[in-house]
Amino acid sequence: RYLGIALENFKPTDEQKPAYDACLIFAAKFEEMCESGKTLIFCGTVGTGKTMLVHALMQTVGHGRYLRAIDVSRKVRDCYSNNGSEFELITSLAETKLLVIDEIGVQQDTKHESLLITDLIDRRYGNLLPTIICSNLNKEKLKETFGERAWDRLTQNSAIIPILGKSQRIG
User: Which of 100, 120, 135, 167 sits a CA distance of 20 to 30 A from 65?
Assistant: First the structure.
C-alpha cells in the first residue's frame, strides 16, 4: 500500500507534523540511531497516518522490517508447527537493523505474547538497535500493555510522539 512513499513526498497534516519532524531527524541521523538504540513510539487514534509515516521512514533510510504485534505471535506459532526455532526467529528480529512493531495492543494479550514482545524489546535494547512502535493506545495504556520492565527499557532512549486528529480514511 505504501510502496514509493518516502519522507520527501509525504505531506504531513498539522497533527502529523511533530511525528514527521521526528522521522526526518531519525532518517538524517540513521547510523547514529543504529548505534544508540533509539526508539520512536507513535501513539494516537485510528487512521491518523502512523503506519504510512513509518513506511515512508523505512523507505527513506532503505532499511526496516515491519511487523504487526500479532504477526510476531503468528510467526512463533508457525515455528512450533513447522519444527522451526522460536529462539532463531526472535534472534533474527532482535538483530534486524530497524524493526517496526505496529498495532501494539491489538494482539490477544496473552502472557506468552507479552513475554515474546518483552524478550524482543529487551534483546534490541541490549543490541542498541532502533525500534519503532506504533499503537492506537495512549502512553498510560502502552505502559500497562508492555509491563514495567519492557516499558522502562523502551523509554530510556526514546521519543513518545502522539499523532492525534480525525481518521484520514473517512471520506
Answer: 167
